[in-house]
Write a structure and sequence with these properties.
By secondary structure, the protein is mainly α. It has one domain (12-98, 110-114). The protein is built from 5 helices and no strands. The protein has helices at residues 12-31, 33-44, 48-76, 78-91, 94-98.
């Protein structure tokens, strides 16, 4: 089975697999904040009312970014923007994994219990 058809386009199954992966990554990123709200609340030392703004801002940001990334995909190519979006979604948690409080987090409001 070849990956290109007679016109030089990718096989529809490959396109479907890439789009399904992107949709799954988007759905997971949207739903992973809600279960983490109690931990976020504890880490930031805020009330439940205040921590709900984390979810609101997260979903609002995604709602605004979606049409912007779509327009950039029209300008620069959908494959390039999809690759960029998937790479940035994959790479963004890595600094948090390597360092408990990296210097790149300038707006971090972590509680003092995280620092030695």
């Amino acid at each position: 089975m070849t990956t290109r058809d007679d016109n030089g386009r990718l096989h529809p199954n490959i396109t479907l697999a890439v789009l399904a992966t992107a949709a799954l990554a988007y759905a997971i990123s949207q739903t992973m904040v809600a279960p983490a709200l109690p931990e976020i609340q504890h880490d930031l030392g805020v009330t439940q009312t205040q921590v709900t703004w984390v979810l609101t801002v997260y979903l609002l940001t995604a709602s605004v970014a979606t049409p912007i990334v779509g327009r950039l995909g029209d300008i620069y190519g959908k494959e390039r923007m999809l690759s960029f979006t998937l790479a940035s979604t994959t790479e963004s948690p890595l600094p948090s994994w390597r360092w408990p409080a990296p210097p790149t987090r300038c707006c971090n409001r972590r509680s003092p219990r995280h620092y030695p």
